[in-house]
Predict the 3D structure of the following.
Amino acid sequence: MMDNIIPQSFHIDKEERNKLNEHNSFVVWFTGLSGSGKSTLANLVEKGLFQTGIKTFPLDGDNMRSGINKDLKFSPEDREENLRRIAEISKLFVDAGIVVIASFISPREKDRELVKEIIGKENFMEVFVNTPLEICEKRDVKGLYKKARAGEIKNFTGIDAPYENPESPDLEIKTEEENLENAVKRIILHFEDKLKI
C-alpha cells in the first residue's frame, strides 16, 4: 500500500512563507507535570508574540485529546501515538510558516526525541517547566491529582506513571522561583534571534 503513496511537491515552500510573514517558523514545546504552569506560560508567550505581529498557533494536550486524538487512552503506546500525531501536525504548521506554541506533559524522553525527529531539531525548542510534584499537586487546578490519589485515574504522570526530566532542554523554568512576567520575557528573549530571517 505504501508503495502507491507519492508525496506531492508544492510550488511554495516554508522559506517563501517565512519570507512573506517576515519571521522564521518553528515549535516551542513546553513540557512538565500537570499543573506545572505549562499552559499558562504557553498562552502568555503566544500572546506576547501575537501582539508583535508573529503568526502563531497554540496546541494543547486537552484540546488535542478532545478532537483528533480522542480515540487514544493513556497507555505508553497511546501516549506515544498521541505525541506522534501532534508532532506531524506541528510540522505542517511550521511548513505553513507558523510559530507553534505546544504544551504537552510528554513525560518520556524517548517520545520527546521522536517529536524532535519528526519536526526537525532545527525547528524545535524545548522549554522544561520544572515545578516539583508537591507544588503541582497543591495547585491541582483540574482536580486530577485528587482523582489519581483516589485511584479514579490510572497511569497519571507523577503518581503512578513516571515523568522523565528532559536531559538537555533549551530552557528550564522553575515557576516556584520565578514570576510569570519574568519567565515569559526570558522565554521570548531566548528564541528572539531564531525568529529573524
